[in-house]
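Job type: complex structure
Entries:
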Amino acid sequence: MSEFVTIFEMGPRDGLQNEKRFVPTEDKIALVDRLSECGFRKIEVTSFVSPKWVPQMADAQEVMEGIHRHPAVVYSVLTPNVKGYTAALKVSADEVAIFGSASEGFSNKNINCSVAESIERFKPLLEKARYDEMPVRGYVSCVTDCPYDGPTPPEKVAEVAKILYELGCYEISLGDTIGAATPETIGRMLDAVLAVVPAEKVAGHYHDTKGRALENIEVSLDKGLRTFDSTIGGLGGCPYAPGAKGNVATEAVAELMQRRGFETGLRLEKLAELAEFAKSLRSDTA
Ligand code: HMG
Ligand code: MG
């Protein structure tokens, strides 16, 4: 039997969070519901963040309450602090994610605190989650390059990844937030991270700004990673990372995995159809 690769669908969250036009709540719900029929095991639905910071995610509660849950799918949400975590509990999210950074510039712009302060802010959330037996995923952004600070030292990424892992995150997702990584920089960064966190606990979250995300995934596969984040139709961008275009497209990652002989459980023909719907939600097409 072929080896399994998990493709974690980010479209409803990372894909839509940066859209200028407010995507109607019913369209967000329709996107999640249609994704739920494609064979995903994990979908990141929305973010319980400050609506002043990310207005597009202001309907997080309505979206979570409106979706039709498929029993085989884990529905995850972003939670930057205890306030977000409490809101996520209220709508029975299956999993939450905290998001830190390996660079100070992005940490300050994205979550309004230093890297060290962010870790302190995550601790009470992680403590509550442990008590509730709620799985927590940990993101580390800007793993090779930061839009504010330039290149990120691999040791810094390893340091933050190790802290989040030891604090209880079940998986560390490594974000090439602005899609500036190359196979070489990803390789060097992974060598540092994999010395402190096992490969099966690490995911690749690569934006495709420069069209290199698939190559970066291939390097990561070779180094033992088996989970990758992507967005249907390549939707996306981060409001606090200028130049960050879409995530790598789910349908392209699924095809790559098929070519490389990995099982994903995804229905490729359904993905192609849904990519068109996802793209129609963009401001430039809607
Ligand atoms: P702050 O201003 O320092 O926080 O923001 P605060 O605690 O002082 O609160 C300020 C206001 O926000 C208060 O409201 C709080 O109640 C409210 P006010 O009294 O002014 O009316 N607030 C909240 N409201 C709803 N939900 C919450 C929440 N927390 C506080 N959870 C904060 C700090 C973290 C809240 C803010 O900076 C924030 O929300 N940032 C989120 C930014 C974001 O979502 N960025 C995109 C996601 S990250 C990403 O895309 C990268 C990733 O994809 C990986 C990669 O690609 O690298 C994951
Ligand atoms: Mg991202």
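Summary: The longest helix spans residues 115-132. The mean pLDDT is 96.
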